Batch of 3 targets.
Target 1
Amino acid sequence: MIFRISRPACFSSLAALACIAWSSSVLAMPVEVHNRIATPVIADKKIALTLDACSGKFDAELLDFLIRKRIPATIFVTKKWLDKNPAGVTIIKAHLDLFDVEDHGEKHIPAIIGPGRKVYGLVGEPDIASLQREVTEGAKAITSAMGTTPQWYRGASAKYDPQAMDEIKRMGYKIAGFSLNADQGATLRKQAIINQFKRLQAGDVIIAHMNKPASDSAEGLAVALAETLKQGFVFVRLDQVELQRVDMQKLQTARRSLALTN
């Protein structure tokens, strides 16, 4: 005779709730992190330029412009990019007084957890261990190539789910968001990039790209950044400031209101 012992109803309910909570955490929609420089002194007009080097080539024209104009920038590089661009590495390493090099991962995989999950067509991480490797191996590659230790992390696509964000912070990295998208992944044309800078405000963190020399990014950024210097803005690197999270919708509303009054 076989005796069947059923689990108490309370146990089943608790297990179900725990499962639902875990699923909700893991499968939460990825979000962009939006940051500005914390408590900026408006009179100082501080802004931060960040450049992503995801994979592909390096934009020598853009780097040359930044060096000539002495514009500091924080460059987020992947191990993938470092391995393919020794000439770019040499240029950056020779100007670490201008450039702060930070972690963009090993293989440019988004910081979203779960088998088959994608953002912008990029497949995320199957599990936490894979995310840890992406972050750690990217950091090791920077230390090996540049002799510096990254403190900031920006994932591929700049989108994160809550579980990934918690793990990146637990590993000791600060997550680098942005408040002004200058080139939309190096897809905007020259005039559109220039137009993006018309919304620039003190405290903004700009995101752009330096891995697609065939795009309009270098040309558009050169014009926009030169005008920004004329307006008295002061560029800083992320290793020189603290960032604070902002509500992008409220920020966009404030930008529109400012545009109407000018």
Target 2
Amino acid sequence: MSKDRNQNSNQEASLDGSDQVAVRKGKLARIREIGLDPFRSNWEQSHTSEEALNLLTEEEENGPEVSVAGRIIAFRLMGKASFLKILDRAGKIQSYVRKDEIGDEEYATFKKLDLGDFIGVRGPLFRTKTGEVTIRAKEYKLVSKALRPLPEKWHGLSDNEQIYRQRYLDLIVNNESRNRFKARSQIIREIREFFWARDFLEVETPMLQAVSGGAAARPFCTHFNALDCEFSLRIALELHLKRLLVGGLDRVFEVGRVFRNEGLSRRHNPEFTMLEAYQAYTDFRGMMELTQSLIQQVAKKALGTLHLERTDGEAIDLSGEWREAKYKDLIIDAVGQEDWFELPKLAKLEKTKEMGIEVDSGLQDFEVTNDVFEKVIEHTLIQPTFVTHIPRELCPLAKITESDSSTIDVFELCINGQEIAPAYSEQNDPEVQREAFVKQVGEETQELDEDFLTALEHGMPPAGGMGMGIDRLVIFLTNAANIRDTILFPTLRPN
């Protein structure tokens, strides 16, 4: 890097934020004084960076003329010539700018550009002595002036809070983050392609609801002024989608935002994206095949592999048939007692204390058992595992298992130590459904939706249903450490 550029970079780095902005605003004023537009309305692009790079084969030294545009992310001034790199949506490309090719006046103005400015560059491709495909600039234009400096790549965004609040900066300097959100978009696209190929109809159901049903969670509430009544943001998609089964839409799915007024954690954000799908004339085992096929197809097409490596080096193998394990068997193995489900709650609490598991003594008996599952078992399920036949108290919306009335025909798919997708044989008997709603116990219960029960009384075909947290799916497919790393703008406390 030249002495001039080092001096300029050091001078700017030595200034505080407001001084750096003042310097750049001064440059902006001088640009306008000489009659140039620092915020142009357009620049005609012929190629993205990736497309331009692919125009030159390894054997070729020179290529066609291209026109690209993007943000300056690197400068190297060398007196009468300069190298710079610009970033666009497809990646990075280098440009070579010579004083004798663009003219003295244009080159003098060029040298006053800053990191972060958007420019357009037009010229032929060539290969440098180091083998890098580069644009030999015949023309350049400043198309948008950056008035604030970019953070230093390795040190300027070390604060996670700043990363989440100023995601736009994270996307500029962090390739991993940018690639993760590109992958997320591709994952959602492949999910839609999968369901369309199976003749599912994509639908949209209301976010504002009079009754918060389909899950046991605390909603966000609001007052609807026009109707002078209370509404809440939806906590699940389920009950409206099953109304569509009643209406004769036998295969439906929705990818949509849901909202739960609960805590924040590495795996929880109050606003998140859910996939729910319902198919008539199948059951939870049909959903098992559908869910496995869906994830395998998405991983293969969006990521190009069925073998994913965790940060600890352990590989997750999505290929082949996935493990199936009954909830009760996992619990018995974990506590080491065959008679666990016959024990009174007090004996279970004594056992959990002996195991070092912190359990609230005020919980219901089935909740004590589920605490064991969540605190001892779930995080160990790294490879894909269908945990089947969970206690009936945990979900009032599923069919009761014929061979064991204490469980329901449900699976919870666990991968990477967390639940990814629950699914069940849907309850379509309106009287049994009403009774299940009324008999709910424990800390988490669902509201009774009379309109949904009325819909069931009109007849709903047997069906399987599945829900999947898109954010959690992206976490393990992209090896993210935190749900916030998979959401462009996660929920934060206001400044």
Target 3
Amino acid sequence: MSGSDSISSHSTICERTSATSSLENLGTRHDMTDYRIELGDSRERLVRHPIYKLVDSPERMKAFMEAHIWAVWDFQSLLKAVQRHLSCVTVPWTPTSDPEARRLINEIVLDEESDELPNGSFASHFELYLRSMEVAGADTGPMKKVIEQIQAGVKLSEALLDPSIPTESREFVNRSFSIINSGSSHRIVAAFTYGREDVIPDMFRQVVGRLAEYSPEVWGQFRFYLERHIEHDDEHHGPVCRRIVATMCGSDPIKWAEASEAARLALEARINLWDSVSVRLAAI
């Protein structure tokens, strides 16, 4: 969410030719039509969750953002965990085994950490979200406090004990980090792919439509954030991430089962978050 950024100009932003061509390359080099991730009904339940209809007023939208910002933040940590497993982030540097996957994750990191805004500036999607919260009048204090504590060297587990953090958001972050801390590459990438990149566009589309009913000077930045995610995840990131999971799991049924479990856990964590936030919204 960026300050004076115009939604109408978002379609002209950073259509990166190199990014698109490399993603298409990965798609043609790997014919992965037999995806064996088993999600049960988790994805469908998440996409059809009643929370999207509850976000129907400015006050409810602000409450939604105050809980959801934690998922926006820990997405960045999940993304960096994927980058650590698919590319080399240590010194001395050594090449990793899959250059296409390496290219993809670095492109996603570029988009998520330093996206180009309509006014020519750059920001992470997390920073965009915080700016949108500020413009909308939502409380950013708890999130900023945790960031400051972590930057000061406080352990995440201790920082998350702050009582101002919504309980459901704390639980969601802890579940995300349990996957991150597993150290299992295919589990982490599966959770990132199916718990975030693959499903986020379908979730956000339902919220974007409602924002048109509100004043653009307040909600325009949030709408920009949502539309950027739909654009990146739906058209580029999601499809190729699925192929990376397929490449990592190969013909190993154990890896497919473990990746499926991680994906379901990520989706169920989001459903649990939405369940709790829905109760909070209904009371407003």
